Amino acid sequence: MMISTKGRYALRFLADVAEHQGDGFVPLKDVAVRQKISEKYLEIVVKELVKGGLLTALRGKGGGYRLSRSPEEYSVKSILELMEGSLAPVACLESGQNVCPRSNDCRTLPLWQGLDKIISDYLAQFTLADLYGKT
Amino acid sequence: MMISTKGRYALRFLADVAEHQGDGFVPLKDVAVRQKISEKYLEIVVKELVKGGLLTALRGKGGGYRLSRSPEEYSVKSILELMEGSLAPVACLESGQNVCPRSNDCRTLPLWQGLDKIISDYLAQFTLADLYGKT
DNA sequence: CTATTGACATAGTGGTTTAGTAGGTATATA
DNA sequence: TATATACCTACTAAACCACTATGTCAATAG
């Protein structure tokens, strides 16, 4: 398993905000209730989304969150990469990893590179806009 | 990261055995040296391969391991599935998992199902025979 | 028959990740 | 001023990962 609850919750949170924001802000609590996710744990997830610039927050009464951009501008890949750190299927392909000394004659490296590419390409196809509305 | 050292070591072990078995048995130690993998840890990995029927073992002097079938009959997918338990990218798709109660109106489920499929299809394409020899 | 070579078995371990929980502070609105 | 909201720090139980340690069982070579 490669995508944890953190990534999946982020996706569901963003999709829920996209669906409900209208012209105002959506409080975290409302999303937590609708999506049946622990409020406290969601806070941790959402903090990273704010820090990453995906969400704009407003404190105090009437506050909450809204998308910083329009839903079509959020690729699923970029969201998951932010939350999971990396989507690489194997450790040796993780960014910021020192290159494996065996990589020159590694028989399995091309296999992993190919796998990494199809995963990336697949997830880059979708955006937040694909994730809500069509009941 | 979704494929651990266990899966990667298994692949490298099997490929090494395929390459060196000839008509005899390949001792674990030789593979460990060639592949620079901890001998003791490899034992754990290999035990599962024997249990899963992928390898045939012979004890004592002159013993070791050889493939139970010919290399073309080992799909990378089946090897990795055996070692990792599941290749599902998300928990809710893991086999033997009770179905998620939200699955009927889950907006992200089709996304995960699609991802799961392209990963499976990709890994099913390759066999052990693709993983050795062509220096 | 014995020493050696190997597979097989069981248990422990230090570090990291996961999925949270607890309790409090800062800030905006009614 | 009360309330609703975001934000912050810290803790935790459980699982997982990548090993290590210490053996026992079995087959062959001498």
Poorly predicted sequence stretches spanning 5 or more consecutive residues of chain A: none
Mean pLDDT over the residues of chain A? 94
Proportion of residues in helical segments of chain A:
40-55%
Radius of gyration of chain A: 17 Å
| Oligomeric form | homodimer
- Beta-strand percent range of chain A: 5-15%
Instruction: Compute the number of strand runs of chain A.
Output: 2
Description:
Two copies of one chain form a homodimer. By secondary structure, the first copy, chain A, is mostly helical. Chain A has five helices and two strands. The first copy, chain A, has helices at residues 5-20, 28-35, 39-51, 76-84, 109-125; strands at residues 55-58, 64-67. A two-stranded antiparallel ribbon of chain A has the order 1-2. In chain A, a hairpin with a 5-residue loop joins strand 1 and strand 2. In chain A, helix 1 crosses helix 2, helix 1 packs across helix 3 (39-51) and helix 1 packs across helix 4 (76-84). The longest helix of chain A has 17 residues, at 109-125. Chain A is elongated, with a radius of gyration of 17 Å. In chain A, 31% of the residues are buried. The mean pLDDT of chain A is 94. The interface between A and B is medium-sized, with 33 and 33 residues. Chain A binds a DNA duplex (30 and 30 nucleotides) through residues 4-6, 25, 27-29, 38, 40-41, 43-44, 46-47, 50, 57-65.
